[in-house]
Amino acid sequence: MSGYKSVFEKDLFSNQVILVTGGGTGIGRCIAHELASLGALVIIAARKIDQLDNTAKEIRLLGGRCEIMLLNIRDPLQAQDLVKTIVAKHGKLT
User: Where on the phi/psi map is residue 41: left (φ > 0), alpha (ψ -120 to 50), or beta?
Assistant: First the structure.
């Protein structure tokens, strides 16, 4: 995302933990990049680990913070467990 400059304040989401489902590709990937650039710890979740890995590496190379978690969003129990895991680890989910 070189050459792109956000219209938002640099630390708008500092100290926030934000989950982006579908964060490995497409719009979810772009949202994850933007949130990370604004100071959030971004947790991206999707079904394909390779896409998540690639996006997380991109974000980290640009100085952002990103974690990955596998998720089939169509499974409500998986989604509930994911949220519980994030809150247990980070104390919150924004």
Answer: beta
Tens digit of pLDDT for each residue in 32-53? 999 999 999 999 999 999 999 9
- Residues of the domain holding 78: 17-90
Does 3 reside within a domain?
Answer: no
Q: CB under 8 Å, gap of 24 or more: what pairs does 82-91 form?
A: 82/19, 82/45, 83/19, 86/17, 86/19, 86/43, 90/17, 90/41
Question: What's the predicted TM-score (pTM) here?
Answer: 0.90
Task: Give strand pairing partners of 66.
Answer: 42
Residue 63 lies in a domain: yes
Distance CA 41, CA 78 (A): 21
Residue 20 has pLDDT above 70, yes or no: yes
Residue 2 lies in a domain: no
